[in-house]
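Quick start: what a row looks like.
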Amino acid sequence: MDFVQQNIMWVMAAVISGAMLLASFVRSSGKGVSVTEATLLINREDALVVDVRETSEWSAGHIPNARHIALGQLDKHMSELEKFKNRPVIICCASGNRSSTACGTLKRAGFERVFNLSGGLGAWTGAGLPVTTKG
């Protein structure tokens, strides 16, 4: 107890940083899926893939048949996605960080089956799966 009293600032900093870490886990509410799980969702359940990278990244290569909506534009394009609320939606970015934020946004908008592609496009290409520059 003496330690806590003598180091109250350090203890408070630890508590606050822990709370912030916990909040980031709660905020990103999409379930992570591997590349294999994602391909099964695409092939068996007609999952929609949404790529939230910036336009220059998208133009360099993306998952075939994916829709491009940059993370900063997601709220503006929510009406386009409404018709997919009952289908699985896989969110993709370069590494999985931006897509985690997008998953939280879709969950809050009422999407029930939202998945974050673990490892992002890097994992997709690392598994030898195709990318395209068309569309």
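That is the whole record. The first helix runs from residue 2 to 6. The radius of gyration is 18 Å.
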